[in-house]
Design brief:
- There is one protein chain.
- The protein is built from 11 helices and 10 strands.
- By secondary structure, the protein is of the alpha+beta class.
- It has 3 domains: 7-121, Acyl-CoA dehydrogenase/oxidase, N-terminal domain (Butyryl-Coa Dehydrogenase, subunit A, domain 1); 124-230, Butyryl-CoA Dehydrogenase, subunit A, domain 2, CATH 2.40.110.10; 232-376, Up-down Bundle (Butyryl-CoA Dehydrogenase, subunit A, domain 3).
- The strands form 3 sheets. The chain has a 4-stranded mixed beta sheet. Strands 2-3-7-6 form a 4-stranded antiparallel beta sheet, with no helix packed on it.
- The radius of gyration is 21 Å and the shape is globular.
């Protein structure tokens, strides 16, 4: 299993770094946040990313996939983390398109994947129902009344849900909360009668939504996969999502660490550079060690996806746990080392702190993944 990017993946990383630096600096996120942009990202930027072929990174070859693999995706997500880039890439391509690729019929793939690749369709995976990530606790119901299928219940923290064209909704067809059996995935259009979308904006400036389903009528043709058998598909989708989000967090950590080192070298106190203070050097060294350990875990997790390793779920939980703790630690230290200015909106460091807090909760915090790691290992 190679943990090193090949030549094409390195070229992709350089290309996306240069592109985001010139077209999507951190200031772009400030503009989206300050203008309360209902879309939650720049549509022009998304079309430019589409023209670069970014949505095609994970697509199968028969749908003009580019073949960069998950390490290629990881390189893109890292750069998006460095620039705090808001886009539908994670919600639409990493999560929703993966669900379609892994579980949909050929007819559904032919209809949906080309539109995603062309930037003509955005999707969101509606999964969680409470304050914490726990897909097995799904209680939104898919009821079958004499062949008439309806969805009722509420979904929370639906990423990019306020702007998505359609949703892939995790529902319970039968069984009780906590059961893996009985879960289904259903494609629901945002204009479906009975569906209410309530926009939410989080501290990091990104958009999400709460969805309220009031007997939303669907058909069997809208099912992604077999009725009641969605959990194995969902696990693979979530592994991809967890690892991709870990890669984004890695990029954010690297950017914050580098900015903090630059500040330590530049800031003077008592007539000397504060980077000469041994106590700050020790703290920076600990940040570096934690960052390198987390980086290795993320690269291994990406490689496990590319090689379809049987321990992919374990590697995903290891990577997310380490990145959760690392992003929290490094942003906390960065704020302290920047002093009072660090927490003000004048500096970008505070924006990374807020993104860190949201990212930690996306697809599971450290407690969730430690427990998942234990269960996967038979404890």
């Amino acid at each position: 299993m190679s943990m090193v990017l090949n030549e094409e993946q390195c070229l992709l990383e350089d290309t996306i770094r240069d592109f985001l630096s010139s077209h999507a600096p951190v200031a772009s996120l400030r503009q989206i946040r300050d203008t309360q942009d209902e879309l939650g990202y720049s549509d022009e930027l998304w079309q430019q990313l589409t023209d670069l072929g970014i949505p095609s990174i994970l697509m199968p070859e028969e749908f003009d996939g580019l073949g960069f693999g998950f390490k290629g995706l990881g390189a893109v997500m890292q750069q998006m983390g460095r620039h705090l880039t808001a886009s539908p890439l994670f919600a639409t391509v990493v999560l929703a398109a993966s669900a379609i690729e892994l579980g949909a019929t050929e007819k559904q793939k032919q209809e949906l994947l080309p539109k995603i690749t062309a930037g003509q369709l955005t999707l969101s995976l509606a999964m969680d129902e409470g304050f914490h990530h726990h897909p097995l606790n799904t209680d939104v119901r898919l009821e079958d009344d004499k062949g008439k299928l309806t969805i009722s219940g509420e979904k929370a923290f639906v990423l990019d849900g306020s702007s998505a064209d359609s949703f892939i909704v995790l529902v319970r067809s039968f069984g009780k909360k906590g059961d893996a059996k009985g879960l289904s995935l259903v494609l629901v259009n945002r204009d479906s009668p009975g569906l209410t979308i309530e926009r939410t904006q989080y501290m990091d400036g990104r958009n999400a939504a709460d969805l309220i389903f009031d007997q939303v009528l669907v058909t069997e043709n809208q099912l992604i996969g077999s009725l009641g058998e969605a959990y194995p598909i969902l696990q693979q989708v979530l592994d991809r999502g967890v690892i991709a989000m870990s890669a984004e967090m890695l990029g954010g950590c690297q950017e914050v660490f580098e900015r903090t080192l630059h500040y330590l070298r530049d800031r003077e106190q008592f007539g000397v550079k504060i980077g000469t203070f041994q106590a700050l050097q020790h703290r920076a060294s600990m940040m570096f060690c934690q960052l390198e350990q987390s980086k290795s875990a993320v690269l291994k997790a990406l490689s496990s996806l590319d090689s379809n390793s049987p321990d992919c779920s374990i590697q995903a939980s290891i990577a997310k746990t380490l990145m959760n703790d690392c992003y929290q630690k490094i942003t906390n230290e960065a704020i302290q080392m920047h002093g009072g200015m660090g927490i003000t909106d004048e500096l970008d460091i505070g924006l990374f702190l807020k993104r860190a807090r949201i990212s930690i909760q996306i697809l599971g915090d450290s407690d969730y993944h430690k427990n998942r790691y234990a269960e996967l290992n038979g404890y």
